[in-house]
From TrEMBL, chain B:
It comes from the Bacteria. Keywords: Membrane, Transmembrane, Transmembrane helix. This is DUF4350 domain-containing protein. Pfam families: DUF4350 (PF14258). The chain crosses the membrane at residues 26-44. InterPro entries: DUF4350. The lineage of its organism: Bacteria, Bacillati, Actinomycetota, Actinomycetes, Micrococcales. Residues 55-232 form the DUF4350 domain.
Length: 432, 420
């Protein structure tokens, strides 16, 4: 391995060639000898022990540092460059670093990472380029020491979580706000205050509580059900690979799953998550150990779109395997896809018979924009095509609604919040 | 917990070398085989393709003559430069000399020296049919004459040795048949016309101007073979004594040494070529230094990703390719009808006329105009039954009017709600 410095030295030696051209061979030998000396004199890049420190999982867009300990096992001082082979989407800032390690000493190689993609990012190898004392030539060796970094989904919709949780608490009667929980589970008896629904007066309790004044009416309060089941089914088939705006449909689905999963877990429901295409590719359950949001993030980070048709026929079986009780089944898919007619619709009756089904889908704002642009002939044709796509999506949605399915359609950024609101509405109205 | 790794994260130097060798095995083997094949081809392909070459077995070669001469104990020494010919002349005092002029003139000094050799009794034979080369060499005494006449079928005429022939070889051969030219001299053999001779004697030796006669193609015609053997020195009945024949073919090699014009490269400084070589080496070093990667290429497993509206865009292009104006308008009308029905809260399945009337009322448009926009032309609708086929421009206007209607309705509804 030669360095650029060697190149400049060789270029400088061309002066000697001009001065004594007859000694061309001598100059060549000198040049080769210098390189050879440097190569022989450098510290061996093989006599190095590399130890990877385990990385902590991080979220997309957040910064982290990957640490590798480089230990020089030889007696010579290792001088040169060390490169950590992170894949490009890991967003490594300083993969190539200068290192100078005395014999039998060690140092830490710190690589700042800013992952741009969720999933498992890998650095397969570390390359050590050891230079000789003159810095003209050296040896280079690649060590296979894999290091992985688990990058969780960004969970940008995290900002919606506090407000949704507050609304849940309001439903629960846990706060001072006088908003009666409208669940079906009996919570407590309390005195009637003006504004309460007269239908909720418990006459029997009122009769028992008659005191001197005889003025106290007693009402029953209800609270939302707990320990209900929420099953999130994320479609990771070919339709999820469709990009809307900057990100694929799948990412919006992942975000929505995270928000709804976190919300439902806080509300005391049992949440199960499964991502599927032809078969189930990822699972998570709130019954697992650990914080459910982390468990769910970890499972969702590995989901990638597969270029196959979704197999909805397996859904009833999978859901039955999870629970036999009535639960809220949330199917995150592309409701505007005509293939839904053959895939999901025939399966739905089996699901709606037992469970409450919500179909959440990303709507495409670009279609609306395309439908509104009508300046030229081509644009009018494109607008008609976009209108037709929207009509078809509308038809699918109304068909779903006719089967008793809740349909949530929103733009990618708004879908998580919309789905969370739908969940709260269902809970508030006791439909779980 | 740290994932401790033993030093065997890297293979040893020997193993690395072996694995590199096995990785490049195919190419190395290919290179070796290729160079061996090239070398073999180079070695085996000795066939002489030079015209009048003594090993050329094609029609225009002299291989037949050379073989017969060899059988008669004549050693052929082929040379291509005057320098080599001169050396051979000095070594072999008894050898005869053949100068075959084909493309290049002979070295002038050597040609002049041949005068003396000829005078000293050495047999010198000039063979050429190139008028220009002949003039170059023999300009002082003779010029080229008429060509050997060619018969109707393209075959040259048979020449007799003639009465003024003093050369025994020609006399023995008697006749000659080959294309060629002649020399104008006073005496000679195989005359053409009055003063042209194909074989003539000059002050520099014997000149034969029909080299075609000795080729593999013509050697068997008439007395060609006898003439060749006679001229080239195969003495009959004297097989035992080996003879030498210097076969000199002037080539570019003669003129390399004494260029009259010095090359500009000769006047360049001495250090220039070493410097050029040095800089080429520097460029190589620069490429190696700059091109060395830090370890293997890192690959990125990218997920699939397709623009979601691609199907809609493709359908739009299909509409356009088919010029589907009615279908396009129908889709647009349905879309707007659906939205207007929702906006005006007319309930699902409201008739287009109802929607049109309501929309016209809200937006303040003329009812007939709105009905024309929203209702399907033809037997179903109330619009003119035989509307002419719509042009593209009309379609754009129509589409824009639909959009305008919807936005007007929205606007009107918004203001109405605000005022309520």
């Amino acid at each position: 391995m030669l360095t650029l410095r060697y190149f400049w030295v060789a270029l400088g030696m061309s002066g000697l060639v001009v001065l004594v051209p007859a000694w061309l061979w001598l100059w060549l030998v000198v040049l080769a000898a210098v390189a050879l000396v440097d190569i022989l004199a450098c510290a061996s890049p093989r006599k190095v022990r590399l130890t990877r420190q385990p990385t902590k999982s991080t979220r997309t867009g957040e910064r982290t540092t990957a640490v590798t300990r480089v230990e020089n096992l030889g007696a010579r001082t290792l001088r040169g460059w060390v490169k950590d082979g992170w894949q490009p989407t890991a967003g490594a800032r300083n993969v190539v670093q200068w290192a100078q390690i005395r014999g039998h000493r060690s140092t830490e190689l710190q690589v700042r990472l800013e992952p741009q993609r969720r999933g498992e990012l890998i650095s397969e190898h570390v390359t050590i380029r050891s230079l000789g004392p003159l810095g003209l030539a050296g040896r280079q060796v690649t060590h296979r020491v894999p290091q992985t970094l688990q990058v969780l989904p960004e969970f940008a919709s995290r900002k919606h979580l506090p407000s949704r949780l507050r609304r849940l608490r309001e439903l629960d009667g846990a706060t001072a706000v006088q908003l009666r929980g409208a669940g079906t589970e009996f919570d407590s008896l309390r005195d009637y205050v003006r504004g309460d629904d007269v239908r909720s007066i418990d006459w029997r309790a009122t009769a028992r509580r008659q005191d001197a004044a005889g003025q106290h009416l007693v009402v029953r309060t209800w609270r939302p059900e707990r320990d209900r089941r929420v099953i999130l089914c994320l479609d990771a088939s070919r339709t999820s690979a469709g990009r809307i705006g900057d990100e694929p449909r799948l990412d919006a689905g992942v975000e929505s799953s995270l928000l709804l999963g976190a919300l439902a877990a806080h509300a005391g429901d049992r949440v199960d998550f499964l991502a599927f295409a032809r078969e189930v590719t990822a699972r998570a359950s709130s019954s697992e150990r650990g914080i459910f949001l982390n468990v769910l993030s970890m499972a969702a980070s590995k989901v990638e779109p597969a270029l196959v048709e979704a197999d909805f026929a397996q859904l009833p079986g999978q859901i039955t395997a999870i629970t036999t009780h009535k639960s809220l089944v949330v199917i995150l898919t592309a409701a505007d896809s005509p293939s839904l007619q053959e895939g999901l619709l025939p399966v739905l009756p089996a699901l709606t018979a037992k469970h409450r089904v919500v179909v959440a889908s990303v709507s495409n704002p670009e279609l609306i924009q395309r439908a509104a642009t009508r300046e030229t002939v081509s644009e009018v044709y494109a607008a008609a095509a976009a209108e037709r796509a929207m009509i078809e999506a509308e038809a699918v949605a109304s068909e779903l609604q006719a089967m008793g399915v809740e349909v949530v359609q929103a733009e990618p950024e708004a879908l998580p919040a919309a789905l969370a609101d739908c969940y709260i509405r269902l809970k508030a109205t006791g439909k779980l | 917990m740290s994932s401790s790794t033993d030093p065997s994260t890297v293979v040893s130097a020997g193993t690395a070398m072996r694995s590199a060798a096995s990785r490049w095995q195919f190419w190395i083997v290919l290179l070796v085989i290729g160079s061996v094949v090239a070398l073999l081809i180079q070695l085996l392909d000795t066939s002489d393709t030079e015209i009048y070459g003594t090993e050329n077995t094609d029609l225009d070669g002299y291989a037949a003559v050379a073989n017969v001469l060899d059988d008669h104990g004549v050693n052929l020494h082929r040379v291509y430069s005057a320098e080599a010919a001169r050396e051979l002349l000095e070594q072999e005092q008894a050898a005869s000399l053949v100068v075959l002029l084909r493309e290049f003139p002979p070295d002038e000094r050597f040609a002049a020296e041949l005068d003396a050799e000829w005078d000293a009794g050495r047999e010198v034979l000039w063979i050429s049919d190139d008028p220009w080369l002949l003039t170059e060499v023999f300009a002082a005494e003779t010029q080229t004459g008429a060509r050997i006449p060619v018969g109707a079928a393209g075959t040259p005429e048979v020449l007799e040795s003639g009465p003024r022939c003093a050369l025994p070889a020609a006399e023995a051969a008697r006749s000659l048949q080959a294309p060629g030219v002649s020399l104008r001299t006073d005496s000679g053999c195989f005359p053409i016309g009055e003063d042209g001779y194909v074989l003539a004697e000059t002050s520099r030796g014997v000149v034969f101007t029909a080299p075609e006669a000795f080729t593999n193609q013509h050697i068997t015609a008439e007395g060609n073979a006898a003439l060749a053997l006679g001229l080239l020195g195969a003495k009959e009945g004297n097989d035992a004594a080996p003879q030498d024949l210097i076969w000199y073919t002037p080539s570019g090699a003669d003129s390399v040494g004494d260029q009259q014009w010095g090359s500009p490269l000769d006047y360049l400084p001495e250090w220039l070529w070493p410097l050029v070589w040095w800089l080429i080496i520097c460029a190589g070093i620069g490429m190696v230094a700059a091109g060395r990667r830090y370890g293997p290429v890192v690959s990125e497993p990218l997920p699939v990703n397709v623009p979601a509206e691609e199907a809609a865009v493709g359908r739009g292009r299909l509409y356009q390719r088919a010029n589907a104006v009615p279908a396009t308008l129908q889709v647009l009308r349905s879309a707007h009808l659906l939205r207007l029905t929702k906006l005006l809260r007319l309930g699902r399945g409201a008739a287009p006329e109802t929607v049109a009337v309501a929309a016209a009322h809200v937006a303040g448009w003329e009812t007939s105009a709105v009905r024309q926009l929203l209702e399907r032309p033809g037997p179903d609708g109330a619009a003119p039954p035989h509307a002419p086929a719509m042009s593209h421009r009309d379609m754009v206007t129509h589409a824009q009017a639909l959009a305008k209607l919807e936005s007007d309705v929205r606007q009107a509804l918004r203001t109405r709600r605000r005022t309520e």
